[in-house]
Design brief:
With 331 residues, the protein is α/β, with parallel strands linked by helices. The chain is built from twelve helices and twelve strands. The relative contact order is 0.12. Bound molecules: iron/sulfur cluster.
């Protein structure tokens, strides 16, 4: 912004003011920017556009208060953003791509294929929209909506930096989590660049055959490549990784799976989130409560903490792995 306003003949501090108006104060019209000079405002009105994204629809879960926002992008495509209020925190789950190329077999977004990457502005805009509607302040931001964040690495990091910036949302870096299905080179890059955001890795299986059958990314980088990259990251950053493990009935939920998961996770400074599946894809189901408890009990005594995360909003298809938009291309 500073560089850009300087190119218009304005002093650099005007760029900071503009950034603050858009991202901190959420201005949706240039005329609201009262500390900018009138000639600059009229130039902005002629040459720039705010509000490139709009809320198309909001669905609220009857069960848990989770809301799913259908956001319309400037080119008529749609992404989904989810607001998850819980007792002690309010989390927003952001999308990073329209669709996804990774094609995980159990995931509704994967079935769409990749339509395009989002820009950093389109990613950060999702938070602006949700913040205006949320009854409570946002405490946590997760990049776990539509898309593989590390497949759109530059724009995702740029968006996370904007959310973290003191002149923007001032959201603490340790309250921003970026998730990946296991793109090994990007995990190493993330470590090398020293970002302070948290990292979550979707593991979802404890052996290569199963993981490759549900997550094709495993054919490119298998579990041992992934573990080495995670060790590299935790050593460089001194930060813990979260392994996400979506529990699929009779696929990855046996006691043997739990024991193998324990061996994998014991090699990494991590915690493990076990997420009982929300049924969206044919051939996959959520395990019974008994099988879920048996799996978690088999993890007892591990060196890492384990939590069960019940995804919220499954009655409105807003839960983990359920995001997809049938409305693409509507005008
Ligand atoms: S689980 Fe994530 S990485 Fe896999 S297809 Fe779905 S959105 Fe893409």
């Amino acid at each position: 912004m500073e560089k850009w306003v300087t190119s218009l003949g304005e002093p650099a501090f005007r760029g900071r003011q503009l950034f603050q108006w858009i991202w901190e104060k959420g201005a949706r019209d240039f005329s609201e920017m009262t500390n900018l000079p009138k000639p600059l405002i009229s130039q902005l009105e002629k040459t720039c556009e705010l509000n490139l994204t709009t809320i198309h629809q909001i669905q609220k879960s009857e069960l848990q208060g989770t809301s799913k926002f259908l956001i319309r992008l400037g080119d008529g495509k749609f992404v989904e953003t989810v607001l998850i209020p819980e007792e002690k925190r309010v989390t927003v789950c952001l999308s990073s791509q329209v669709g996804c190329a990774l094609d995980c077999d159990f995931c509704a977004t994967g079935k769409m294929g990749l339509l395009r990457n989002l820009t950093s502005g389109e990613i950060a805009d999702q938070l602006l929209h949700v913040r205006q509607v949320s009854e409570r302040p946002i405490t946590n931001i997760v990049f776990m909506g539509m898309g593989e964040p590390f497949h759109n690495y530059e724009q995702v990091i740029r968006a996370a930096n904007m959310l973290n910036d003191d002149l923007g949302f001032s959201h603490g870096a340790r309250k921003i989590t970026i998730s990946t299905s296991g793109l090994v080179p990007q995990i190493r890059r993330f470590a090398d660049e020293g970002h302070r955001f948290k990292l979550a890795v979707s593991l979802n299986a404890s052996d290569n055959d199963t993981r490759s059958s549900i997550m094709p990314v495993n054919k490119r980088w298998d579990i041992s490549d992934l573990v080495k990259a995670c060790q590299y990251y935790t050593k460089a950053s001194k930060n813990m990784i979260t392994f996400e493990y979506v529990l699929l009935d009779n696929i990855n939920d046996s006691i043997q799976d739990a024991k193998r998961l324990q061996m994998i996770a014991n090699q990494v400074f991590c915690k493990v989130n076990v997420i009982p599946y929300n049924e969206v894809a044919e051939g996959y189901a959520r395990p019974s409560k008994k099988r879920i408890s048996r799996f978690v009990e088999a993890l007892e005594g591990s060196q890492f903490p384990v939590t069960i995360r019940w995804s919220q909003g499954d009655d409105i298809d807003a839960a983990c792995g359920q995001l997809s938009t049938a409305a693409q291309g509507e005008s």
